[in-house]
Fold each of these.
Amino acid sequence: MKKLFIIIISVLLFSNLNAQKNTNKLLDWYNKDVKSDKTFGVSTEKAYTKLLKGKTPQPIIVAIIDGGTDVNHEDLQSVIWTNPKEIAGNGIDDDHNGYIDDIHGWNFIGNANGDCVHWDNLELTRLFRKLDAKYANAEADKFAKDPDYKLYLEVKAKYHNKLKEAKAQYAQIQEMYTKMQASDSIVAKFLNKKEYTKEDLAAIKSDDKDVITSAAYMKKWTERGITMSEMKDYLKQVGAQVNYHYNLDFDPRNIVGDNYEVNSSPYYGNNNVTGPDAFHGTFVAGNVGAIRNNGIGVNGVAGSVKLMIVRVVPDGDERDKDVANGILYAINNGAKVINMSFGKAYSPQKKFVDSVMRIAEAKDVLVVQAAGNDGQNIDEIPNYPQNRDANNMIISRSWITVGACSMKKGKDLPASFSNYGKKNVDVFAPGVELWGCEPDNKYGSASGTSMASPVTAGLAAVLRSYFPELSAIEIKDIIVKSAVKYTKEVNCPGEGLVKTTIAFSELSISGGVANLYNAVKLADDIMKAKKK
């Protein structure tokens, strides 16, 4: 769901990303070492140079289950998985896996005509629509003990509050953007040029009050590194909430043409793995496996991977059926690591996902999932998919959930937006202002547990590449046990001006930050012990 990466836009508005873009030494901070570089990265480079040099890795397929990926990106193209048994463009299912021309993966939110779902509701909206049809005129005392009625009252209140908030925010941002447009027009006319700097703005002198006011307004945004284009993009993001996410009259599932509450067949969709908006999936793919040391772009964590692209996430909440079938596709087509940088507050067909996660464990596949960006304790407030069944029992031992951290030790080590949980978050990893790939051969900065998850998936892929004898369950155990522990008090993630503190060790099972160097050392020790 977009809430897992809306943090990208929030950072864009409220911090100066240009400062990050121009500080080259920080661009790949997630690959750096906490001791030698004084930066809380995962020690990627240290692991390669000190422990893995001269060793031969086995190529690993990593599935990027996301919202679409630019498979032609210059820093990704040569590491994108290509189905070796499929002939491109012949309209035939050459490998007989049920998917025609699945060259680089599959898109489960589309149809055979090539149409794709772009926007969708949140699960909250879908639930409210369904339950409201049943309970809108219900007598409270008659249904007081009905669990679905209790759920209805919950989602009804939450839905109306969220819609109200979204409309208010949309109106506010629209007003800001309109004022920005008007101010920009006045300043550009006064300076007689469309492009101008903060120095140009500071030098403006005029008796015209409108010019001075407009220059001051534009100076404020320029100092924050916010452009007209970026503000327009943010307005579009917020507008999507009103027009699609919380719009009861909007339902795009007719594009797919199925009953998403019934999972009788996984064979639907098309081979358009890029989709209408490939920003998020492209960024995630780059964190995992952008081509290392090629002199351009960024260095992904994993250096010997093929990235299988599976599209299940719209601009809105993913549907359980699509998630389940996306995971199943990845398993059946050779993925040994799966990254899932998405999540939502409700999961009506959770059983679909749970069943394939058990298959993942049985087939020796490691699944890495973003913990979510609500600043919540997911031991108390679930974020789905969740590695717990109805009896609160673990579903899969090869499923790892990842929170996000910043680059520095201290109270702000955990990202303020990151979900956490001593029982349900396994480890933290870099997820604040990471540099990565964007569509059309571009690069930029983004934050979120959506970024922390692929860093960890990349780490897992390295382990699976160099230690293929180790199982997915063993790899997860190694990642958790080898995390760099941090026991000091930190700001507990979440909103609010008054921050509460908590020991970082209480935010996850591992109590630490994933570390490739430590993980490789532990994996090597385990392999030596096995050979004795």
Amino acid sequence: MTTVAGALTTVKRRPLLLRRPTKTTGAFSWFTTIDHKKIGIMYCATAMLFFLVGGLEALLIRLQLAGPNGTVVTAAQYNELFTMHGTTMVFLVGMPMAVGIANYFVPIMIGARDVAFPRLNAFGFYVVVAGGIFLYSSWIPGINGVPNGGWFGYTPLTDTPLTAGFLPGRGPDFWTVGVVMLGIGSTTSAINFIVTILNLRAPGMTLMRMPVFVWMMLVVAFLTVFAMPIITVALIMVFFDRNYGSLFFQASAGADPLLYQHLFWLFGHPEVYILILPGMGIVSEILPVFSRKPLFGYSVVVFSGIAIGFLGWGVWAHHMFATGLGPVAISAFGVSTMLIAVPTGVKIFNWLSTVWRGAVRLTTAMLFALGFIAMFTIGGLSGVLHSVVPSDTQQTDTYFVVAHFHYVLFGGLLFGVFGGFYYWLPKVYGRMLDERVGKINFWTMLIGFNLTFFPMHFVGLYGMPRRTYRYDAGLGWDAWNLVETIGAFVIAVSTLIFLANIIVSIMLKRGAVAGDDPWDGRTLEWTTTSPPPDYNFADIPEIEGRDAHWHHKYTEDEEGRLMPLPSGGAAAAAEGDGHHDGIHMPSPSIYPLITGLGLLPLGYAAVYHSFAWLGVGVVVLLYGLYAWAIEPGTEPDESDHGGGAPARVPEPVH
């Protein structure tokens, strides 16, 4: 007597290596998940881990420079520290942090249930992890491969052979291969965001109804897609110069090392906006909520962001004013650098106008948003000075430039990110962070940041060069460097306060229960439960205007005063928080992890010219791709529950 169900099970049995995991809970599920929310959390956790590592490197740098003739590290170790610090903060903190927040919230903010390519999303994350592991494995004793040529890797320092070059060892090889790997992960994420935002918006969610954060991530995604191939080409050329005798940048063979600088900064300056635009988007979401006003000049803010992305391609040579480009080139790039300050300044005035005469609530998120505006403005003003060629010539390769880009990137992106954490983590975990501790976190961060980086303007104007590992006494730099070192440790204390707040409020669950809409928010993420269900929305919302959630809760009387609607927005909320029949989400998969980590042995094969590593990498990569390609479909049927709605199995037939 054979049952129909038994027969179906027999027919559908699959080889062990092609059976897909179905569990969505438990520790192992984090390795197989393709849920955009979990991947967003993993991106942010990974970026925070590297933030701590990069911060430790910064503290060692500051200890070395706290006083004249420092002996904390050697010259070679200092080169390794500042190279890995810069590379970590740009490629392993700034970009993954923004991608993580966007991964979690962009689909929800546009009314979608997931990203367009869930498995590709997971693959991109694991490639970033592989790149980070690869770069930091260079610290293993005996490898002699810690990157030591700066996060910019200028030629001819980095393109000469490892046996007889300016930088002997495998450091530049690890750096070039590692950054290429990180670029692959960033590019896949960017493609995913573009397709998701353009194709998966809820009905009625026109482009000009999208939240500003979504708009900024769309601009960032396009910048990434076009910028990463440029740096990839440059790094491959450096790698071939070092390892295979090519002559792309060898001045002795008639080539021009400045070509590398052009390629690097043609990527590098759009990269600045890849890092800063997400922070601008986050601030544009926080300010209206805690001012209880719509964002002032929404359209202008959006088009200013687009203009920044467009103009960012035409300013790269202001990093090269001291290289002898000639008066025509430096004049043109000086003008373009001044021009890009216009849309940036427009945004600042729009943010201030949003706050002006609003019902301001100085929550921790709001304080970080206001801190972002202040610190970014200072960085922007010092940046305008670099468009003036005589001024830039004096400041080039001094600590004045270090001060400038830290005010832009740390004072910009990271202040925005910390504000985003305090704003959105209650939605992610359903628990509020402690506001009193959060405000201590903000003020210590603000004080430590300014103690660290503002004096760098002074020592830079006094002539202290960048990338120097020690200096003599009596040059006027001693006291300021000590202040900078004290400030760096204040930042470290502030970071520990933030982590303690996370641990106590969220991990130990001592924070107050957040509720679905703790801040009286304006956008769609506040219509779902806290945390959101796997499918985000039981019913895809229909959008009738900008700030859709706000208009389901409030209207205005004849005098323009806010009046709550009787429903309180309940009609816009997601229905329930349990499982809903008929909603099918893609099943978990282990193959993005296998495929992504398969790049790791290929990286070692490139650096060591090893056929053994090459074989391992090819086998793992091809297996991951093959299994991924023929992985069984995820639509539920009579014998396969697949992670979607429960399948209906027929009654046994005798």
